[in-house]
Known about the structure:
It comes from Casuarius casuarius. The protein has 175 residues and is an alpha+beta fold. It has two domains: 13-129, Sandwich (Immunoglobulin-like); 141-174. Helix content is 21%, strand content 36%. It has one helix and twelve strands, in the order ββββββββββββα. The chain has one helix at residues 138-174; strands spanning 13-15, 21-25, 30-32, 35-37, 45-51, 55-62, 70-74, 78-80, 89-90, 93-95, 104-112, 118-129. A six-stranded mixed sheet has the order 2-12-11-5-6-7, with no helix packed on it. A hairpin with a 5-residue loop joins strand 11 and strand 12.
Amino acid sequence: PGLHIFSIALALEVSVGKTNTVTALNGSNVLLPCVFTTCIGFQDLVFTWYFNSTEMIYHGKIKSKASEPFLVGRNPRVEFVGSTTGKDNNISIVLNEVDFSDAGKYTCHVKNPKEKNAQHSASIFLTVVHKMVETDNTVTLIIVGVVGGLIGLLILFMLVKRVVLFIIKKTQDRK
Length: 175
């Protein structure tokens, strides 16, 4: 017998989704997404949202997987919209009536005492615009149409060639 040492991989992860940028129209409400995962569960987990790394805009605590988060402190324009009793540990917030001064970096920070106070965070960048710009895809559609048409013509040409060669071969076989 020897001494066996087992280590537990602690894996607290925080994510703001596939893209870390969000664009919002001045005066609108914007969702700032954030979810976390943990391998061994959580207890007394603390999460905090920061604006530009220093200004705390939402602070919450979650007792356990069976309980929803409760508010510790928040900016009056911030609303919690997540849920942690379902499949996803969603700690997303909505920032109401955004204006140009709200543009910047928003960081979702999570601390899990059950994982030896493991901490992790993820950031999302908010851009506030005066008017949403519609993307014009006309050039892309024209290019796709032309390329598709050329491919179609090439296939048609190859088919006609095959048929002509087949007919020539058949007429030569008869002679």
